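User: My instructor asked us to take a sequence, write out its structure as tokens, and then describe one feature of it. I'm not sure where to start. Here is the sequence I was given:
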Amino acid sequence: MAYRHFEFIEKHAWTLGILTAIMVSIGGLAEITPLFIEANKVQPAEGVKPYDPLRLAGRDVYVREGCYLCHSQMIRALRFETERYGHYSTASESVYDRPFQWGSKRTGPDLARVGGKYSDEWQRLHLMNPRQVVPQSNMPDYPWLALHLIDGKDIQARMRVLRMLGDPYTDTDINNAPKAVAGKTEMDALIAYLQGLGIDNEPHKPDAPPPAPASTGAAP
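Assistant: Let's start with the prediction itself. The structure tokens for your sequence are:
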């Protein structure tokens, strides 16, 4: 190409700007498109299912209250992390999370495998006043969660939207949602969500059921 063509582009700012935007867009698509394609290939592993109504409500409470700002749910494939928290996190166990809660901020401990580590009562005390069970904790209190009941109709609406996005909820699952959360508080839901982390969402073989939650717990 003759230099006069380049000279025209260099001397006309609008032309240079438009062509630059086009080239940057092409380069960006070349980098991003393969990532989107690869992400859509991730399938739930054996044993990983969508959240049941109560845990779905609990996850929404977890996100609403900003718990992810201090707690991650990603264990890296490093020895010092797996020895402390358990098996490293995999994409397949978070396939039904929108958005996923991996993160990297650890003001508090990682929660990817916290399910069954403590009893329901320990979790309740911890949410009401963390310093009852962990004196050095700087986590805020969440007593109001015990006062607010879960809205079954709202959970049904959320499940319908998630089904549109690909979660395999059946009509029966959605119709039974109000009954599953009847009389349950936001605290009950949040505890159910936490008690399933690393148990209900960790891949396992059909002939090897996930471990049952512990009946008692101790402070970290």
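For the description part of your assignment, you could build on this observation: Residues 213-220 have pLDDT under 50 and may be disordered. Try explaining in your own words what that tells you about the chain.
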